[in-house]
Amino acid sequence: MHDIIIVGAGPAGLTAAIYARRANKTALVIEKSTFGGQTTYSPQIENYPGFISMSGGEFADKLVEQVISLGADIEMETVLSVRDNGDTKTVVTDKNEYEAKAVIIAVGVKHRQTGLENENSLVGRGISYCATCDGAFYRNKTVAVLGGGNSALQEAVLLSGLCSKVYVIQNLDYLTGEARLIQKVEGAENVEVITGTVITRLIGDDGLKGLVLKKTSDGSETELEIDGLFVAIGLEPDNARFSDVAKLDDYGYFASDETCLTETRGIFAAGDCRSKTVRQITTAVADGAAAALAACRYIDR
């Protein structure tokens, strides 16, 4: 029996573990894949207070080190569901079942896919969702980045230092990222921005060879030869497995405000997986602190 079980080891979940242990509560963090969540895919973080610049991996490493030093337990398993037993909760994974007095769900979000035919079969064979992870495979090659927000622009900046040519493809007529990132992209000689354009087809069966592009203004189509496509069109929640204990909004996010409370007593939601207007590392960390303190108050009562 743990006091608090935390599902997910992103910034929200790891911060929750820190606050739980500092409140002298036993804490178990369960993560299925990567410590740090989506943060680890960010090649450079420049908007976190106290740090001029750091990589997402560096930030994640510091969080994990702190959590371990405080004595939290960590298990690498996939959480399948959470059961409400009243005064206790059961967290069911692909390997075990764990009991706790309170549960904090901080599962973050996952990469949004294009929905194009053959996308899944081409993942790892020309399609990627992480330039930090896979950029080196395309050194001196031609790639495209799909998206126009901060994540896409960060990917393009990173790839511009590795690849011979980088195309940024945006469906809108303008880029939506921060002005500073737009300046970096537009200032890179080997980056070309293509706006008002969508991808209608992926070319290649055994591996990605190119894209069919369509202009949204007139519907004209062209083909673009590339070696790789990095998809950065946003993120989406993966909360359906918890819908019986935590209400979801129309978009699949937990219907929870800054208190991080759910409809079930003793179950809390924190980070990008809950309904919110701003999804940044700073807001995820804030959620982790709020959820842990709320869980501690719940247990103490």
Question: What can you see in these coordinates?
Answer:
It is a single chain. The protein has helices spanning about 10-20, 55-70, 120, 130-135, 150-160, 180-185, 280-300, and strands at about 1-5, 25-30, 75, 80-85, 90-95, 95-105, 110, 125-130, 140-145, 165-170, 190-195, 195-205, 210-215, 220-225, 230, 235, 265-270. It has about 300 residues and is an alpha/beta fold. The chain folds into 2 domains: about 1-110 and about 235-300, FAD/NAD(P)-binding domain (3-Layer(bba) Sandwich); about 120-230, FAD/NAD(P)-binding domain (3-Layer(bba) Sandwich), CATH 3.50.50. The strands form 4 sheets. Strands 1, 2, 3, 4, 5, 6 and 17 form a 7-stranded mixed beta sheet that branches. A 5-stranded parallel beta sheet has the order 8-15-9-10-11. α1 runs parallel beside α2.
Summarize the model shown:
With 301 residues, the protein is an alpha/beta fold. It has seven helices and 17 strands.
